[in-house]
């Protein structure tokens, strides 16, 4: 199976975690696009399959609205049953690196509203330890050089992502060369650097379930 087919497989499988008639939290990326498409298909036969979504990006909002799915502002929702999102890397403990699509801040906010985080990913995303994928960090523009120097002290090399402004008007610094051995501690340490809006390590908001697309089918990791 191609990577695209594996993404379709897990996008469809995620529907099983969405309670009928609920409001669903929706992440961002090419795998989530497959989930949104599956949701659109399900709505054709069951118009009450979901009553709305809380979206983590302009990109996902546009896709949801194009399918007639109402998108609710996060500030009007107090709790979601489930949040569905992809990952750039996920380890066996459910810790993730996210932000390849630059939507990490809103992803963390919407994930925090949800009782359950279901990560959908093809098998290439499963790693033994986080850190090979360049770590995305959303940064206030005036702090970018300072944040890059702070990462250099930790042994990382940061670069501002070219041509990328986040939905929040900030920049993304992608950092390579880091050893992320304790994801939760790392996440809270990086959050202390002035100018960092969000670090792309999701350890506090880690996945409760990972639906991994493999050539043998969907594997469920808990
Ligand atoms: C966007 C993300 C995505 O979930 C992550 O980049 C995975 O994307 P894809 O499903 O396209 O591989 O964190 O900010």
UniProtKB/TrEMBL annotation:
Catalysed transformations (reactions): aldehydo-D-ribose 5-phosphate = D-ribulose 5-phosphate
GO biological process: D-ribose metabolic process; pentose-phosphate shunt, non-oxidative branch
Pfam families given in the database record: Rib_5-P_isom_A
Keywords on record: Isomerase
GO cellular component: cytosol
EC primary class: isomerase
Molecular function as annotated in GO: ribose-5-phosphate isomerase activity
Active-site residues per Swiss-Prot or TrEMBL entry: 107
Residues given in the record as substrate binding sites: 28-31, 85-88, 98-101, 125
Pathway terms, separated by semicolons: Carbohydrate degradation; pentose phosphate pathway; D-ribose 5-phosphate from D-ribulose 5-phosphate (non-oxidative stage): step 1/1
EC numbers, comma separated: 5.3.1.6
Highest rank taxon of the organism: Bacteria
Gene3D superfamilies xref list: 3.30.70.260, 3.40.50.1360
Subunit structure: Homodimer.
Function: Catalyzes the reversible conversion of ribose-5-phosphate to ribulose 5-phosphate.
Protein family (similarity comment): Belongs to the ribose 5-phosphate isomerase family.
Protein name: Ribose-5-phosphate isomerase A
UniProt source species: Aquabacterium olei
Organism lineage string: Bacteria, Pseudomonadati, Pseudomonadota, Betaproteobacteria, Burkholderiales
């Amino acid at each position: 199976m191609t990577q695209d087919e594996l993404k379709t497989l897990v996008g469809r499988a995620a529907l099983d975690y969405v309670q009928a008639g609920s409001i669903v939290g929706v992440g961002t990326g090419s795998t989530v696009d497959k989930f949104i498409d599956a949701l659109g298909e399900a709505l054709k036969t069951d118009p009450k399959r979901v009553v709305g979504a809380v979206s983590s990006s302009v990109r996902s909002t546009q896709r949801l609205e194009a399918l007639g799915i109402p998108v609710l502002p996060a500030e009007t929702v107090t709790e979601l049953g489930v949040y569905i999102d992809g990952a750039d890397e996920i380890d066996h403990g459910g810790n993730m690196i996210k932000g390849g699509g630059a939507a990490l801040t809103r992803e963390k906010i919407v994930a925090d509203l949800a009782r359950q985080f279901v990560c959908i990913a093809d098998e290439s995303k499963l790693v033994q330890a986080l850190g090979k994928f360049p770590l995305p960090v959303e940064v206030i523009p005036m702090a970018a050089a300072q944040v890059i120097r702070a990462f250099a002290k930790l042994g990382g090399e940061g670069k501002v992502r070219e041509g990328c402004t986040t939905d929040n008007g900030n920049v993304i610094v992608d950092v390579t060369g880091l050893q992320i051995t304790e994801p939760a501690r790392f996440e809270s340490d990086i959050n202390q650097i002035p100018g960092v809006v969000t670090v792309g390590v999701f350890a506090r908001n880690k996945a409760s379930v990972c639906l991994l697309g493999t050539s043998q089918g969907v594997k469920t990791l808990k």
